[in-house]
Amino acid sequence: MRIPIRDVTPNTVYAEIIGWVHEVRDLGGLTFFLIRDRTGIIQVTVSKKKAASSVIEAARDISRESVVRVAGGVRAIDKAPGGREISPDEIEVISEAGSPLPLDVVEKVPAEMDTRIDARFMDVRKPRVSAIFFVRNAAMHAISDFLFTRGFINITTPKIVAAATEGGTELFPIAYFEKEAFLNQSPQLYKQMMMAAGFEKVFEIGPIFRAEEHNTTRHLNEATSIDIEVSFADHNDVMEILEEIIAAVYRNVADTCGEPLAHLGIDPDVPKTPFPRITYAEALEIANRRVEEDIRFGDDLGTAAEKAIGDEMGEHYFITDWPTAIKPYYAMPYEHDPEISKAFDLMHPRMELASGAQRVHQHNLLVRQIRSKGLSPESFEFYLKPFRYGMPPHAGWGLGAERLVMTMLDLGNIREAVLFPRDRHRITP
Ligand code: AMO
């Protein structure tokens, strides 16, 4: 019976494994194979003097990256990976790999990002690359666990929609019978509507589509958003949930991803909570002090400003109290100063990870705010209706899964954190 390679120890007597041929070294009388599955790597040594002729025959033409089944006695050997090797009495090629390979899994030759993504299935065979997705898996597991434990209800909302969520123009139109439709850029309106439905605490982890034209190392055209919405809560309540969830993600990765982290050569510190909070006005002051620009109240914080503030803060932090003018219509203005809203961004020193707010729950104010952004309330009727029939106060946020993984693992390009990235130039594989 096949066992995972990780479970073969120096004390194992006999093992049957199935995996991919990672490396072949032929030293004349001895042939060494490294066989890999998702749990690890093991050495298989064929001695031409000792092995059965059927084994020597099978071993002769085995190409790298073929899938093979190997069964044989195990012995402890210091120099081999994991301190053990198999001397096979059976080798079977289950699925042969052609050559040349589209990519070098052993990474003697580093490949360009484009070449890697073109052969992503093979790229992800590299232990250093699969490690990213094992970490991403642990991060997503921690997030669902955290939210389920706290009574959040998991929802799924439509990705084919009739109107923009954020009011921007970054939408992908799609052909939908005789109607105009778009791919949704955020579950924002739907998660808010579920507050009117009385669900109280909801979350959704799903795709968001943004028709951003620029190709950058931190934008995707299809990203994964982790969204929550909570009734009877304000911006401070959901900021607390957000910092706790980030810490829980880092803790779970530290606790369960020892091997992937070792492959990546990284050991991320669990960030301390609570995260520092600075207001937008304070962030401006830091940016203007550290960069040669004159950023005015009401300007967006550009990349240079974000970097300057991140350098000064040096850890995760929140920027709160944003100008109402540059946040979406659904952000709640402060009663004492409506120029400022109860909106926040969660920042990693390198970039924004999440944004959120306490929302406007009063119908009339919401209509005014939609108009003030130059949008038409008529096109939001399906969204506005619940606000006329008992909408509780509520707050929420959206957190980018890829940016979370990218910053945690110090990856240079967001494409590293997604299996099949979608960008300006790529819709395959
Ligand atoms: P926002 O537009 O700031 O907010 O998006 C939230 C988070 O999603 C991630 N993200 C992206 N990641 C990669 N590529 C992109 N093109 C991209 N766009 C967004 C980021 C970002 O911080 N409705 C609000 C959330 C809310 O208020 O609940 C929203 O969508 O990490």
UniProtKB/TrEMBL annotation:
UniProt cross-references to Gene3D superfamilies, sorted A to Z: Bira Bifunctional Protein, Domain 2, Nucleic acid-binding proteins
This protein's record includes keyword Ligase: yes
The entry's keywords: Aminoacyl-tRNA synthetase, ATP-binding, Cytoplasm, Ligase, Nucleotide-binding, Protein biosynthesis
GO cellular component: aminoacyl-tRNA synthetase multienzyme complex; cytosol
Compartment annotation: Cytoplasm
EC number of this enzyme: 6.1.1.12, 6.1.1.23
Listed InterPro entries: Aa-tRNA-synt_II, aa-tRNA-synth_II, aa-tRNA-synth_II/BPL/LPL, Asp-tRNA_synthase_2, Asp/Asn-tRNA-synth_IIb, NA-bd_OB-fold, NA-bd_OB_tRNA
Single GO BP term: aspartyl-tRNA aminoacylation
Sequence ranges assigned to domain Aminoacyl-transfer RNA synthetases class-II family profile in this UniProt record: 133-429
Any single Pfam family the record assigns to this protein: tRNA_anti-codon
One GO MF term attached to the UniProt entry: RNA binding
PROSITE patterns hit by this protein: AA_TRNA_LIGASE_II
HAMAP family the record matches: Asp_tRNA_synth_type2
Family in the record: Belongs to the class-II aminoacyl-tRNA synthetase family. Type 2 subfamily.
Designated name of the protein: Aspartyl-trna synthetase
Organism annotation: hydrocarbon metagenome
Classification lineage: unclassified sequences, metagenomes, ecological metagenomes
